[in-house]
Every structure is written in C-alpha cells, then in structure tokens.
Specification:
heterodimer, A: alpha+beta, four-stranded antiparallel beta sheet, about 15% strand, B: alpha+beta, three-stranded antiparallel beta sheet, 11 helices, about 10% strand, globular
Amino acid sequence: MDLRFTEREDAFRAECREWLGANVPHGLPSGDTHEGFALHLDWERALFEARYAVVSWSEEYGGRGATPMEWLIFEEEYYRAGGPQRVTQNGIFLLAPTVFDYGTEAQKDHILPRMARGDDLWCQGWSEPGAGSDLAGIQSKAVRDDDAGGWRLSGQKTWTTRGAFCTHLFGLFRSDPDAERHRGLTYFLVPLEAAGVTVRGFGRLDGDEGFAEVFLDDVFVPDDAVLGEVHQGWSVAMATTSVERGLTLRSPGRFLAAADRLVHLYRDRAEVADAADPTLRDAVVRAWIDAEAYRWQTFLTVTRMTEGDNVGSESSMTKIFWSELDVRIHDAALGLLGPDAEVGDNLWMKGYQFALSGPIYAGTNEIQRNVIAERVLGLPRR
Amino acid sequence: MRFAFTEDQIEFRDAVRDLLANECPPSVVRLAWDNADGRSGAAWTALAEMGVLGAGAPEDRGGLGFTALDLVLIAEETGYAALPEPFVEHAVVAVPVLPDTAVEAATAGETLVTAALGGAAYVPYVESAGLVLTEEDDALVLVAGDQLVIRPETSVDGTRRLGWIEWDEAEILGDATALAAAFDRGALGTAAQLVGLSRRMLDLTVGYVQEREQFGVPIGSFQAVKHHLADARIALEFARPLVYRAAWSMSEGEPDAPVHVSMAKALASDAATLTSRQALQCHGAMGYSFEYDLHLYMKRAWALAASWGDAAWHRARVGRAIL
C-alpha cells in the first residue's frame, strides 16, 4: 500500500490544475436551457482542443490514455477549479463505454471522435411513460425492414435529459415482441434529425427545460445503428447502467468540491448558524467526512479494478452513497443559509433541486438497494 | 497510489481469521460472560504462540516490527470474532511502546497489558492485567498491577470487566506526543474491530433472513428487510477504506494522521451502531433473545463505539481541524 500519488500522477495533477485554473469559465447560465447549452458547448470544445474532454480515452479517439487514477485526479481538479456541469456527459460517460465494449471498429471510428469533439451530442433514451424503474417494460418497437436494410422505430421516450438540445439518442427498443421481457430488446443509435422524430422539451423541477420527450413515428435507421447484437440490448444496456451507477457519472471530485464549498459557507456564517442550530456544525463535518469516505472507497475500488478484480453490482452502493451525500450537503447548506435559502438565484437552492434528482435517476435508490441485497448480500429475489 | 494490502498482510490476516474461527467461536464469547475473568483462555494463548500479541514490538525486542497498517486487518478479525480480550489495548496500543523489561512477557501472553487513555474513566479487563498503560500530567505512563487500587464496574458487554483505577507510582514511558500517538493507535484499532463486528452482525443476519420463513417465504425476500441490510452494507463499504487509510497514515507518520483516525473511528462507530440496529430488527424476537448469539456482537459494538472517543467526539476533532 502506498497512498502517495506517483510523480507521474502529481505531474498530471499539476498540469490539469494550471490549465483548468486559467481556462475554466465561471458564471455560465444553466446548461439545461437553450442559451446555456450553447455556451457550455463552447467550453466543451475548448476542453477538447486542450485534450481534456475525454482524458481516459486513447489518443486515437481524442483522449490521453489516462489511467483510471489519473482520470479521478482530473475530475478532482476539474471540480476544484469550479468547472461547470458537463453537458456532454451522457455520451461520454454512459454511451462511450458501451461503444468501446460492444461497437464495431467502424462504429468506434465514427462515433467516438465526433462525440469527443462535441459534433454529435447524445441523450439517453431509456425511460418511457410506462417504463421507469421497471426498465424491461419498454414498449417502443423496432420492426425489421429487410428491403431497406434496417429497422423502423416507433414509440415514445421521456424524461430524456437535455433531449431538446442533443443531436442523437441512444436507447432500447423492443425488436422481438414474442420474447421474454428482458430478451427481445435491441440497443439503437438514432439521429434526432431522422424523418419521423419529434422532440418536445419540458421543464424539470427547477423549471429549466432539461427534460424532453421523444416521439418516434416509423423512423428508419440502417443496420449499423444497432449497438451490439440484435435482441441483446438488455445486457448491452446493463453494462452502461452499471458504469452510470458507479463512479464515472459522479466521481468523488464533485462532492469533495461541494463539501469544500460547504465548509466555506459555514465559516462565513458560523456565528449566526451556530446560534440558530448547533447541529449544523456537525452536519458540515459529517458531509466532509462522507466526501472523504467516497474518495477513499473509490481509490480502493480503482486499485482493485486495476489489479483485475471485477466490481459489478457493488457500484449500486456507490450510487446510493453519492446521491444521498449530495442531498445531505445541500440540506446542510440550506440550513446554514437560514431565511436566505429561499431568496433570489442562490446556487445552493438550485443545487438542492438537482441533488434531489440523484436518488431517482440512474435507477432509483430503492432499486439499487434491491440490487445490493440480492447481488452483493445474496438474498433471495421475490 | 496503490490502495491495497500486500500478499503477506492478507496471508497473516487469513491465518488469524482461521485461528479465531477455531478458538473463538460464539460459545467461547458466551462462556466469557460468566467465567472468572471475562476472557477467552485458549484463544489468547494461541495468538501468543502465533506471535500476534507481540507483533507490534520492534524486531530487536522479539516482535515482528508490525506497523499500524500491519495490525489493522488483525484487529478487524478480533472484532469479527468478538474476541473477549483487551487485544487493541495490549497488542496495538501498549506493545509498541513497552520497555524492554516488559515486552517479552507481553509477547508471550504471560503478562496482560491493558490501557486507558484520552480521559477514559474505566479500564477494560483491569483485574487480569499485570500492567496498565495510562496517562498522568500529559505523559504516557505504565502502572504495575500491584500499584493499582481498583473499583470494579460492569459493562453492557459481560466480558468486558471494567475498573476505575488509582495508583501511586508509575513509570513514565513517553511525552505528550507519545501519549497522543498511543491514543490514536487505540482509536484506530477499535475502529478496525468495529468494522469486523459490523461484518459479523451482517453475516449473521444475512444467514438468518434466508432461513427464517414467514408468509411461506424467507423474510430476506421482502424489500423492507433487504433495504435495512443494504443500508448496513453501505455503511460498512464506506467506513472500511477510511480505517485502512488512517492505518497507512499512522504507519507513515503523516501529520494529519490524527484527523484520519478520527474520520475512521467516527464512521466505524456509526456503521457498527447502525448495523446492530438493522441486525436486531431483521432478527425480530429471535435477536432479542439472550440465548441467541447476536447480542454478544451487538453489545461489544455498543461498548467499543463508545470507547476511545465516540463518533461525536471524533467528529468534533475533525471539525476543529477543518472548520
């Protein structure tokens, strides 16, 4: 065991810190609005030009071939510098790992560099009006069109994050209506400009148009729009959701930075806050310790992964921990703000509303607790 | 950065695990509730023979030169077994700083050494102890058993025979720095035991809910039960890395090691307390029965969660460092 970073890791951190410190934009409007999304894209492209957009990818696709540890270091530095939300995250962190694992060479060569550059912007088409936690209840259909050499897609996706601003959707469609629920699904890559696609944005809890519903009416896509094998979409998608639940979507750096901001907020308001509610100080300390715990649990996990251990369902523990930590951090901040919590454009109230989505998206925490009980602890399924 | 133990450390841990599985099953812990000294008997002798008790002593004094990092996994196993001994006090806190004259007997298990630091009022297993490591005027001191005036006290854990002590003469072993380091070794070792206890209570409960049937099915198939145990498993998952990290920091003499120890003890205490609640609830009336083993582990967890600084004490120490 050696918990010091290597010279190479320290050098990489220093390089990231210098560049991010000089280049991170501050005060961008929400990336979940039309105006804000465009400004975030400028930032994403600047990241790409400096080869920071996808550090863990190999160089041929626009990355740096960074190790998992270096990727964590980049994330720590990104959020430490106050870097904004990554509006390209659903492509980079959710679709790309699946393309690396299941894509053909042609798919990789076409999809990944365009994604890294921000030419194609991907949204996730999992949820449907009738398929949320019960994801296998997907009804959207894919019908084979042999004459045209492809598939015809019909149905409705919803709660699609930033769907109104993206150019492409990755999602699951029922390709074999006679198969058992988890079988008979196929993973498709769909350009949103294709004929028959209608996208309608709608507001999230905070009012930003960060959600969309996507209607597909007999949309033709060619055979190379299939990722992985036909009818194997469930297992292909599960590989993605496991990544999403785990550390890539929300690495420790984000929460270390949030806990640090919370500490500063406490220092600014300690006198008033301690008088109003003496437990707030303890809440701040708890949040800070928990962010540290997530950081070290991740280093432990990454070491295990690097040495060949398989971490699968354990990522459900990570997802629950960071999502509930995020709520606790914001709870504490609102407590410190007291009557100011409701006022104006304060970022903590905005962040609180976003934090509340964490226990819901990427598989609700209730579903994750079932996964932990059944696959980590080995308890019987119903 | 490599956050993993060496093969040697894992092998030693496994050997201790096997030894304790044989020598310290629940029946031994239960027996210790009612015997004269609250202790394990053969398990302690076996640990001495294996070299575990003196492992923390320098090699030139007959030990193995084990650091806090080498000892942390072993302490965790003694927690898992609820070994009814002052293992942390003896092997983790005292042995590394005992004078030459005392090391040999402590290593052989002939002299039991216990400890009370950080303002602790009660000393565990003090009536069996030949030596007590404690504090006086900001110094780390060693008191011989025959110098002690002991006022016995009971613990919620029937094996932990406590005593409030007074003494006349003590040997000074170290200054305030040595005293602080000894306290941190105790908090760290206890945190590791709490991690082990959490694992044990979780294992017991995961086993029970798969066997116990109600409404014609194992109660472990019910979501409410699953979610209780998932929460305990999560608490364990995130406490354990902080314990190992604190062990590394102590071994390396990192300046922030005391803060790391406090984070570890706070989360380990909370994890064990939560796990005891979930374990009891999932066991229902069975867990509430004195004849059933769960309480042996729960009560040790409660006692240790409150010892060497409870979670609130350690969070306050973290708070002073960061706020």
